[in-house]
Design a protein that fits this description.
This protein is of the alpha+beta class. Helix content is 30%, strand content 21%. Strands 1-2-3-5-4 form a 5-stranded antiparallel β-sheet, with helices on one face. The protein is globular. It binds adenosine monophosphate (AMP). The site of adenosine monophosphate has 11 residues, from loops.
Length: 116
């Protein structure tokens, strides 16, 4: 079940503000409120998908393509030629806090190798 009151749903409805980086028809990218790296962007689909599984199972192909190509738009816009990291947390074991699918884009310094 998708929670229409989750914080990212409210950002999409413009009920609450965000620091927008870019968007297209299928995605919105904005700065994480509590950055874990010099550059920490959240990239969310505009559709109502609670997590990675939901998005990959239920989004239309054009939504999936539009969303994932949007990640490259952000990378190009921010000129991340030195690299970056993409992370998604899914569900309880994945440590997901906000139940609207999102990918974290981290960059701006050499990140540690640890994945946990
Ligand atoms: P996750 O644990 O993968 O669900 O990540 C949720 C992320 O959302 C965390 O990194 C939070 O810092 C971030 N966050 C929570 N509220 C906001 C907000 N209002 N604007 C931007 N980022 C937020």
């Amino acid at each position: 079940m998708y929670d229409d009151q989750n914080i990212f749903a409210r950002i999409l409805k413009q009920d609450i503000p965000c620091k927008k980086v870019s968007e297209n028809e299928y995605y919105l990218a904005f700065e994480d409120l509590y950055p874990k790296a010099p550059i920490h962007i959240l990239i969310i689909p505009k559709g109502r998908y609670s997590d990675a599984t939901d998005f990959h199972q239920n989004a239309a192909n054009e939504e999936i393509i539009g969303y994932y190509k949007g990640i490259n738009d952000v990378v190009d816009q921010l000129k991340l030629s030195d690299g970056y990291r993409l992370i998604t947390n899914c569900g309880y074991h994945g440590g997901q806090e906000v139940p609207h699918y999102h990918i974290h884009l981290l960059a701006g310094k050499k990140l540690h190798h640890s994945i946990v």
